[in-house]
Amino acid sequence: MEHKHDSAEENAEQQRAKILRAVIDPRFSWQYISRISSGERRTFTVLAFLASLVVVTSVVFACRLPSPLDFACTHDNRDKATCFIFFQQALPPGCPPDCSGVDLSQANLSGADLNRVNLSGAILCEAELRDAQLIRAELNSADLRRADLRRAVLIEASLLEVDMRRIDLSRADLRRADLEGADLSAASLFKADVSVASLRRANLAGADLAGASLRESNLREANLSGADLSAASLYETILIKADLRGAILEGADLRRADLREVQLSGASLQGAWYNDATRWPVDFDPVEHGAVYQY
Question: What's the rounded mean pLDDT across residues 260-278?
Answer without folding.
Answer: 97
